[in-house]
Amino acid sequence: MLFLPRSLLYGLRFLRRNISLTVPAISILALGLGANVAIFAVTYAVLLRPLPFPDQQALVIMWERDERRNQPVWEVSYRNFVIWESQNTSFSHLAALGSLSWSLRLMQKDGPMTLPFAAVSGSFFDLFRTGAALGRGLTRADDQRSSPAVAVLSHSAWRNQFGSDPNVIGRSAMIDPGTGLRAFTVVGVMPPEFDFPRGAAAWLPLAPVLAGFSAQSGFDTLEARDFGVLYVLGRLKTGANADQARAELGAIVGRLTGTREAGTGRSGVMTPLPDHMFGQVRPVLLLLTGAALLVLLLTCANVVGLLLAHLSANGRTLAIQIALGAERSHLMRQTLAEAAALVVSGVAAAVVLASWSIPILIALAPENVPRLNEVTFRTPVLIGLLPAAVTVITLLCGVLPLIILLRRTHAELLRPDAMGPTTTLGVRNGLLVFQTALAVVLLVASTLTVRSFSVIQRLDLGFNPSGLITFDVLPPAGKYAKEQTNGRFYREVIEGLRTVPGVSSVAALYLRPFEFGPIGSDAAVILEGQSPKDREAWRRNPTLNAEAVTPDYFRVMQIPLLQGRAFSDSDSADSAPVVVVSLSAARRLWPGENPIGNRLLASYDSPKGSWQTVIGVVGDVRYRGLTQVTSDLYKPYLQSEDAVKHFMVTSSVDMSELIGRIRSTIRSVDPSAAVDAIRPMNDAIDRQVAPWRFTAILFSLLAALALVVAMIGLYALLARQVVERTRERIFPQFRRHLISTRHRVHSQRVSDTPATNATAGGCSNAGSAAVGDGDR
Predict the structure, then answer these.
(1) Which of 130, 210, 234, 293 sits in a 20 to 30 Å window from 22, CA-based?
(2) Please, what is the end-to-end C-alpha distance for the chain in angstroms?
(3) Residue 765 has pLDDT above 60, yes or no
(4) Strand partners for 679
(5) How far apart are CA 414 and CA 161, in angstroms?
(6) DSSP assigned state of 582
(7) Contact 340, 11 (CB under 8 A)
């Protein structure tokens, strides 16, 4: 029982007496462990902490992929979802989810507020096996074409928009989900941890929402086979095999599309839901965790080297203890006490550094990292990681140096030079090489990530975001007929914004670059000379990214006009249909030909509409991601049914002054119109670049940290080696000089003493010789 107090006191004395060792060792441990604790806290909160869904390993998400058109994401139509649900045998539940979080307008006393919502099928909450915190979730009875309008609120929306009112269940809220203003009955509030899809403020039944879109689209969106706007969620049955479920999905998609052979058309895609939720975040965090572990390994190597040098320098004392009968267990306890004192002190400093580092990591991380706001020193971090780290590092740093030093036999330990200062010089030099190699590995990885980031930054986006201010304008649903939304409402908004003081130019488009990631508006095309009734021709031709734009769009965005002309105000609903194509689209549709004057027919789901003449070719633009160049088809907004809700303006005044002027101008056109998401266009670019920037910065910081740790360890070890080698060279010479001096002094004293007789002199000389020999 006295072992622990004695060891504690011994460790404290060790720290106080060996400042030249403890300062660099504690500094190294603080830096290495601090980085690992901070990164592990982020990794645990984001990746390792279980999702708030029971049996999350059984949840998958599915969509289609068009291999012929090289479309990795092809959304599922409601009609196909119903067939998937009826024909599958591998899933206990299937649920449909809008592939995007659509926007609703919530009417409040101070005006409408725009909030994101998720349109989900009635089986959505049953699939997740998650109950509501208040009221109930949605049911299949709510998900019918003519079901009463109901809504389930997120916990944040209940708190922020309804004041955490416990009596909210059964209340009516005036909501416009894009299909017209209606009274929705609030039937439930979800718990705070349920946040899927991320950021959704409410969940509305899918079938009534799509039925409302049907009136605006001119066709039945619930029955249209190619009106893909959904992802499909599934929960595997107990004992079901994921590979069999994937094969079954492929067979169902093949039957529905008539393309059963791989590479001939659409196929099914199934991936675990956690992988889809975390996306690119998972590999980045795992890579950073691996780099942090390399830093920790470098840290341990440094501390082992320092303790090994310390034991070697005190080797004579250790040898005497062994010669006098000291047990190896006693020496082991003594060394462990020294190592534990160092490690505990280093961990205490590491916790302080980690607490400062975590807010910095959160600030550097991209906005799309899920659960980032929950990163903290949670119980598994402190109670689980730190004691385990202290134990492992103490054993490693305390036991390993002693094992290396005591690997000799008893006879070798008793030799005078067995425990000299250079005994472990080879091992320590090996540790120096190992540390340098680890630091070089991290520096190379950092260089590669920085190069990748610089390449991403230098990518030609196809447009210039500098000086652009973007915002969304949403008219009240149902007030304008679909064909009048652009021609009446947005036309008046554009004319009004042109008169705003400080606004230099105005443009609008259907889908802003990078708005929905890889998802956009896909348009199938048929070329002149091909029959509109030939469905195979529609499938064979490349699918284009469709955009409706205002005449000034290309000029405002600084997209180069390569051939022909851009749109003008004369390209109205009453004029001949025209389009502008991107360079990639022109090369794919008319390779080796001049596209100007050629005609095509563009449609979303069926061969309808009027032939459109190509009047211009513009440069390629990256609409769906920094690494993806799309083939684009532009339509004049007055000839398109797609509402140009995303605006771009250039201004000569500060954005804070401009916001009020923009809002008042748009509300003068229609007081019920909503203006949202006003921000510089560069912010949208920054969100795309953020993952690369985050990886590059953290790898650079870890590499710099590894370099600092290696430098501290190298300096401490080399300084100790210099002292040892200096002592090794100087002390023997000094000892020989001292002995020689003493011998000369003694001899001089003997020669100066008079001999009384021969016998006495002989005895004296003999004694002097004996003394001199003894001195030697």
Answers:
(1) 293
(2) 51
(3) no
(4) 470
(5) 81
(6) E
(7) yes
Structure confidence at residue 418 as a pLDDT band (50, 70, 90)? very low
Residue 525 CB coordination number (10 Å)? 23
Q: SS3 of 581, please?
A: strand
pLDDT tens-digit map of 728-753: 555 455 555 556 666 665 566 556 55
CB 419 within 8 A of CB 319: yes
On the CB side of 662, how many CA atoms lie within 13 Å of its CA? 29
Token digits of residue 452: 């990748």
Which residues contact residue 343 at a Cβ distance below 8 angstroms, ignoring those fewer than 6 apart? 29, 303, 390, 393, 394, 397
Q: What are phi and psi of 406, to 5 degrees?
A: -100, 25
Is residue 674 within 8 Å of 112, Cβ to Cβ?
A: yes
User: Which uninterrupted H or E stretch holds 564?
Assistant: strand 561-564
Interatomic CA distance for residues 268 and 250, integer angstroms? 5
SS3 annotation, 588-603: HHCCCCCCCCCEEEEE
Cα separation, 27 vs 22, whole angstroms: 8
SS3 for 147-209 is CCCEEEECHHHHHHHCCCCCCCCCCEEEEECCCCCEEEEEEEECCCCCCCCCCCCEEEEHHHH
246 touches 235 (CB < 8 A) = no
Q: What residue segments make up the domains of the chain, in order of their start?
A: 3-49+280-420, 68-264, 480-671
Contacts of 679 (CB under 8 A, 6+ apart): 469, 470, 471
Residue 305, helix vs strand vs coil: helix
Per the CB < 8 A criterion, the answer to whether 666 and 645 are in contact is no
Q: Where do we find the tokens 């416990």?
A: 166
Query: Per residue in 456-480, is it b (16+ CB within 10 Å) or e — as a string?
Result: beeeebbbebebbbbbbbbbbbebb
Judged by DSSP in three states, 368 sits in: coil
| One-letter identity of residue 300 | C
Q: Which H helix or E strand runs over 667?
A: helix 655-669
Nearest to 68 by CA among 227, 261, 228, 249: 261
Measured CA to CA, the distance from residue 418 to residue 408 in angstroms comes to 9
635: its two tokens = 């339509």
523 burial via Cβ count (<10 Å: 0-12, 13-18, 19+): buried
Q: What is the dihedral of CA 425, 431, 434, 436, to 10 degrees?
A: -80
Q: What is the pLDDT of residues 232-286, one digit of tens each?
A: 999 999 888 888 999 989 888 888 876 544 444 678 899 999 888 887 788 888 8
3-state secondary structure of 657: helix
Q: Give yes or no for a contact between 604 and 227, defined as CB atoms under 8 angstroms apart.
A: yes
* Contact predicate 16/332, CB 8 Å: no
Q: Which residues are bridge partners to 71 per DSSP?
A: 66
Give the Cα separation of 559 and 468 in Å (integer): 13
d(CA 68, CA 80): 20
